[in-house]
Amino acid sequence: MANINRIIYLIDEYLESNRLNHVGPSEVAAYLAKNGALPSDGGKTLRKHLRDGKIPNAEQPGGKKQSWYIRHSNCKKTSLSTPAHTSETEVIMTKVLTSSVVTEGLAPIADSESEFLILGTLPGKVSLETQCYYANQGNQFWKIMSSLFDESIPLAYEDRLRFLEKHHIALWDVLKSAERISSLDSDIKNLTINDILGFISKHPNIRVIGLNGDKASTYFRTYINIDELPKHIRVVSLPSSSSTNTHFTLDAKIDRWETILKQ
Q: Is 194 a catalytic residue?
């Protein structure tokens, strides 16, 4: 029996490694077969999964019996012909809760030597109050960093910033601002996007972009045109470091986050 979650993961991996916005079943089926996820049948089994609706973000723009286009599982459902916005794009939602407030994100943490850019969605309440990234003690970001680099994380935020600088890590968020009523990404409305491409142009040593969580990945892949990134940059979707992400254990998160350090 096919492991659909593994198939979806490998499709995402293929899209990321080849910097593709979408792929056809015949092309990616060979990759799936190579990794033991599907039989080597020219895409026949994959097409059946597509017809059964088991693969997210897959469609036939020309109608039935026409070519399939498969996109990243974290890509927001939009028309394939819709261009991605590249800078401070404002997306207006139709329903806004009257009790929501506008949340402004933090300035990026980076220097001229930064190589890894970790993008969250938008800072939570504690981070905004303290003006410190990942300040909520329930967030596992700093535990993940400690494990990745086999170092203890200092308590003082200024020392933590020096830790990031030492390991060439930059921090920012995909969203510049949004309306929301809690720290949950699911409560986000009326958003604007940070100028990620402009940031990359000013930090040419960036070689990996890590997207911290499904929402960050969704917003990035929907509103940032990956084709406009320098060709050497690798984009990696990562499980959220938030403690509310119970789909992954801490050890499993660490295993996935290690991918940002691969050459």
A: no
